[in-house]
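Colleagues,

For the teaching module next term, I've prepared a clean inverse folding example: a structure given as tokens, and then the sequence designed for it. I'd like students to try predicting residues themselves before seeing the answer, so please don't circulate the second half yet.
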């Protein structure tokens, strides 16, 4: 009886060990599958945080997690007809952006929709913005040092302070944008369509948002 009992205990221990090994394997598989969807989850969390921050614009703009999860689950249930997991996640991410954009925009005052669009871009693609750019745009940038020289002569006097702030935020633009060359910038400053009047040699040296800041 003792030998049979020991054999039974050994068999049970073997079964338990095998079950634990199988459980660990399944856990690893689940973790790997979950990690595949992490980029979409990260995108969703970024967008939700951005949506919650809209209450800073107007206290009426309050959106619950439950409402956001309805949108998120709608996206997850879309039938996209693609085989590649990577492509599926890319399309799901795009659909989430579109769905949130339209859903939230309908709830905003018209005057706030552009601000929301820019805020959404910045939240989704923070890597597209260089240090100080967003702060300059919001008007919250406080320079630690002033530019070493006065504003260029081509700059209108009523915009000199704004240009100086831009120069303080980005010390290299004097050289990179060649701000000291009046021949390059005078026609641009005098144009009533300055967004289309950048000199081609300078245009490629500026990011899209930097052009927005300069026009602003």
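(Answer key — instructors only)
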């Amino acid at each position: 009886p003792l030998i049979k009992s020991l054999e039974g205990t050994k068999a049970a221990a073997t079964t338990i060990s095998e079950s634990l090994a199988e459980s660990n394997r399944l856990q690893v598989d689940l973790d790997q599958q979950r990690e595949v969807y992490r980029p979409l989850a990260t995108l969703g969390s970024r967008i939700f945080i951005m949506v919650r921050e809209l209450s800073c614009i107007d206290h009426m703009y309050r959106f619950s997690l439950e409402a956001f999860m309805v949108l998120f689950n709608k996206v997850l249930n879309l039938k996209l007809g693609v085989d590649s997991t990577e492509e599926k996640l890319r399309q799901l991410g795009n659909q989430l952006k579109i769905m949130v954009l339209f859903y939230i925009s309908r709830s905003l005052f018209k005057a706030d929709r552009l601000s929301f669009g820019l805020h959404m871009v910045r939240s989704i693609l923070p890597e597209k913005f260089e240090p100080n750019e967003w702060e300059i745009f919001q008007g919250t940038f406080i320079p630690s040092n002033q530019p070493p020289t006065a504003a260029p002569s081509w700059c209108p006097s009523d915009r000199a302070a704004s240009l100086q702030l831009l120069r303080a935020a980005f010390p290299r633009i004097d050289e990179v944008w060649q701000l000291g060359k009046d021949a390059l910038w005078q026609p641009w400053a005098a144009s009533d369509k300055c967004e289309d009047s950048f000199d081609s040699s300078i245009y490629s040296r500026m990011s899209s948002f930097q052009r927005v800041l300069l026009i602003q």
